[in-house]
């Protein structure tokens, strides 16, 4: 199954240990497991491990995508702002003979750790299999095409590609998003009316139309 381009906060939060460590920041998702493995035992990993599975965008300047800086009140020099404590690849506040800065790119600028994008806002849909009457509540990313949503659903039905996907009786275009297919996210309207979002979840109905496919 191909890896998704977009991830929900819940998917990121599932990778919350030193042995499997993901974080998100400035709209992207990063797998820092290889970084932790490479620097195992380094005390400077502690702030990163403490934030495993979380969004750490508040560590960064959204424009430069670099660590936030501040003026040191003692030296009046501009330095990285790390209130949780200095972490890997952040230079020490004072000159030190044991500081080795030939590591290349700092981890937050290294594309090797990027795995995808953090969705701006996840949404829920009900996927109803009209052949078996089975119904599955699925959290999806609105930026995903229906083909990508299908791959999310395949954990529940490996032959999901053998069905025609419809909403309100209209076949859905699998290369377009839910919004582009006329399935809007009505959460803002529900919030504006002070209604519980769980009262209404749009349904996508699957109609069997083929022999079982090998996917």
Number of helices: 5
Rg estimate, integer Å = 22 Å
Q: What percent of the residues sit in helical stretches (DSSP H or I)?
A: 10-25%
- In whole angstroms, the N-to-C terminal distance is 9 Å
| Overall shape | elongated
Major β-sheet annotation: 5 strands, mixed
User: What's the β-strand tally?
Assistant: 12
Overview of this protein structure:
This protein is of the alpha+beta class and 215 residues long. It has 5 helices and 12 strands. It is elongated.
Salient structural properties:
215 residues; alpha+beta; 5 helices; 12 strands; elongated
How would you summarize this macromolecular structure in one to three sentences?
With 215 residues, the chain is of the alpha+beta class. The protein has helices at residues 9-13, 33-38, 46-50, 146-153, 187-192, and strands at 6-7, 16-17, 20-25, 28-31, 69-71, 78-80, 114-118, 123-129, 134-140, 163-167, 170-171, 203-208.
Task: Summarize the SSE layout with pairings.
Layout: E1 6-7, H1 9-13, E2 16-17, E3 20-25, E4 28-31, H2 33-38, H3 46-50, E5 69-71, E6 78-80, E7 114-118, E8 123-129, E9 134-140, H4 146-153, E10 163-167, E11 170-171, H5 187-192, E12 203-208
Parallel strand pairs: 1-7, 8-12
Antiparallel strand pairs: 2-3, 3-4, 4-7, 5-6, 8-9, 10-11, 10-12
């Amino acid at each position: 199954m191909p890896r998704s381009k977009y991830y929900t906060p819940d998917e990121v939060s599932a990778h919350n240990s030193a042995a499997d460590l993901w974080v998100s920041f400035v709209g992207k998702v990063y797998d820092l497991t290889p970084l932790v493995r490479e620097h195992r035992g380094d005390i400077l990993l502690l702030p990163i491990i403490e934030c495993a599975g979380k969004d750490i965008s508040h560590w960064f300047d959204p424009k430069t995508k670099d660590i936030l800086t501040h003026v040191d009140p003692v030296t009046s020099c501009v330095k990285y702002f790390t209130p949780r404590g200095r972490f890997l690849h952040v230079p020490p506040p004072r000159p030190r003979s044991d500081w080795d800065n030939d590591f290349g790119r700092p981890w937050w600028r290294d594309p090797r750790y990027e795995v995808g994008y953090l969705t701006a806002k996840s949404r829920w849909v009900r996927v109803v299999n009209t052949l078996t009457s089975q119904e599955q509540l699925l959290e999806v990313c609105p930026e995903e095409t229906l083909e990508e949503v299908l791959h999310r659903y395949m954990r529940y039905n490996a032959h999901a590609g053998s069905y025609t996907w419809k909403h309100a009786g209209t076949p859905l275009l699998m290369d377009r998003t839910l919004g582009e297919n006329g399935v809007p996210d009505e959460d803002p309207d529900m919030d504006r009316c002070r209604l519980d979002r769980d009262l209404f979840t749009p349904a996508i109905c699957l109609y069997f139309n083929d022999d079982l496919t090998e996917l």
